[in-house]
Amino acid sequence: SGLKGQIVYLFLSYYLPPKAPLRGTKMTSPLEQADDGGGLTISSMVKEFQGLKDKFKREDADSPSPFSDLEKATVLQECRVFSDSKVVTESPRKCSQLITKLLHIVTQGDAMSSSEVTEVFFGVTKLFQSSDASLRRMIYFFIKEVAETCNPDDIIIVTSSLTKDMNSKEDLFRANSIRVLAKMIDATMLGAIERYIKQAIVDRNAMVSSSALVAGTHLIRGSPDVVRRWVNEVQEALHSSSDMVQFHALSLLYEIKQHDRLAISKLVTKLTRGTISSPLATCLLIRYITTIVRDSGGNALASATGRAAYQFLELSLRHRSEAVIYEAAKALCNLPGIEERDLGPAVAVLQLFLSSPKSTLRLAAMRALSSVAIAKPSAVIKCNDDMESLIADNNRSIATFAITTLLKTGSESSVDRLMKQISSFMNEIADEFKIVVVTAIRELCLKYPLKHRVLVGFLANFLREEGGFEFKKAIVDAIIALMCVISETKESSLFHLCEFIEDCEFTALSTQILHLVGIVGPTTVAPARYIRFVYNRVILENAAVRAAAITTLAKFAARLPALQASVSVLLRRSLRDEDDEVRDRATVALRLLGENITKDAPGDGEAEGSQRPFRQDALAADSTRDLPLQPEIHLLLEPLPMSFAQLSAALKEFEVAGSREDDALALSLTTLPVVDYTRPSSQSAVPASASLSSSNDSAELYKIPELATLGRVHSSTSPIQLTESETEYVVSCIKHIMSEHVVLEFAITNTISDQLLVDACQNCSVRGKM
Known about the structure:
Layout: H1 2-15, H2 30-35, H3 42-62, H4 72-78, H5 85-90, H6 92-107, H7 114-126, H8 133-146, H9 152-166, H10 171-184, H11 187-201, H12 206-219, H13 224-228, H14 231-237, H15 243-257, H16 261-271, H17 279-296, H18 304-316, H19 322-333, H20 344-354, H21 359-375, H22 384-389, H23 396-409, H24 415-426, H25 431-447, H26 452-463, H27 469-485, H28 490-501, H29 507-520, H30 528-540, H31 543-559, H32 564-572, H33 580-592, H34 604-609, H35 634-637, H36 644-660, H37 694-702, H38 705-708, E1 713-716, E2 720-721, E3 729-738, E4 742-750
Antiparallel strand pairs: 1-3, 2-3, 3-4
Helix pairs in contact: 4-6, 6-8, 7-9, 8-10, 9-10, 10-12, 11-12, 12-15, 14-15, 15-17, 16-17, 17-18, 17-19, 18-19, 19-20, 19-21, 20-21, 21-23, 23-24, 23-25, 25-26, 25-27, 26-27, 26-28, 27-28, 28-29, 28-30, 29-31, 30-31, 31-32, 31-33, 36-37
């Protein structure tokens, strides 16, 4: 009845043969009946199923969650039925539902008080009298989730019940109780149950043995000495017929012996002779082999261990399990120092995976081949045809790996064809995949510089498409990187970037491009055409972009005397800007260009009437008039020789030095002291009072009259530790570099509270020639 009945009817009416026709009548197929207006067709079946699917969705959306209005106090009140033995034994389902509500409350972050946790734990212990398997599993799950956050004293309440279950005849109870106890107990309690865990490791039941091995993996982190005594039992479990037991046994055995390289090598050598049948354990063994070979360093095939590892990995390529085959192929590709000819078997196996109907195998193979193509692209060329067929794969991750790998391995003649395939592909993937493709295109352009027009044009087209900030920034950074390496693409790339800022919604990208235009624009063949793009930003953009555009215009005027007068006219129009920084930048730029900003200042009417985009033909009017530049014009054309933090520290130091010296120095970048702004490590034992910054150290130096007369401090180092951090007296030294002197400032810190250091002195000796 209902929806299930409709689905059954649709299947039966379509797939079951019709009733026997009357004598003399013709039997028709469902598709023939569709021509006569009756019966079901494929399209009608799809429509019917889609309608039922939508109906199911609406019913699921309308049904409220059973945990939407839970209150902790109400649930705790209901949990008092745990003390009723009749309810526990006769209604285990009700108790399971109450535990589910408790788990929901805990996972939602509604913490219980200590008294509430104790009460709940007491109630849960009463549930152990029920033998219902489902309820017992819910009990284990609840204890494991809550035990990590509750008071350790409350854990003892359920420990005895779990220990009893660990000796039960039910394998389900034994396995789960061991897992829960491993999450709860500490080193002091482990000794009481160690004997039971060792017996469980060699148990005939695979679930019990696997649970004990997993418990050992957790316990070895807190009690390594105890777990190391189980090595004989773990080695015996390694020969179990269960695949899962072998996997967990190998994992625990490696944890036990991981600090003994010789023992690990012997273990791996023994296991490579075919004593493991579990595919999962074989994958784990392959990873251990790869780790050993990688830690040995050098060429993987130069040593006997490396050659034996290569033979085992090559043999594993013919394993019956696809997981083992892929793990072996990936390990071969990642071996250090492996030659390209030795990668042939692994690449051949990965090529077969590319045509697999399983999307997981295709994705894994593409990921491995993509990593190989970074270092050895010629080894993957033979897979290009298979990878091209994956560009249209429904899984976008597989398609992205295929595209990026083809861009790494493709030849120069295939670039145009690849760009056409990528154009339709880019519109169907997310920005995170687009960024990967952009990075691959940049690498391809660096590999084939003659194709820069096609590749840069492709990137420029997607600058004008929809996309987020990270995607657009990746394209801008790629184009700028190509401009720095390939000089032929400088002007075309700069023009593409200027067109992009005409409709750019990201302030950070606009300011970055304007800064680039100010550096590269004046060196192009026709620099005047870029001024239009820059001045449009002064009119149409926000304050941050307008300020960057003012600086760019000033750079054009400073480097191109023919454009100085015309650019000065444009800068004057920003003297009445509503933003303080824009006005200040325009004023400074005009001053450095030698302009008199008080003369012929634009009025309100002129400022409003002149707010129009700059035209290139307006440059011809005043291009012949050269204006005198100020000596400080290099402040516009050259970057600051220090960071803003260093500049701030240097100014403070200059101010202190000027107050101590008789002759006042003119403030300039050349007269500013050079400071080292690197901070000492946070792990240093010297307290914060002794770890002052360089500017503060030199400022304190000027307060000493004998040292203030030595001159200005050019540089101060970070504190250098002269003693170990564990010594009784920690000594550090700061070197202050002056023009003709070097001042050593020693800081001594007493770490012993009941002792006082007096009459301290230092002896300095010179090593080598001065």
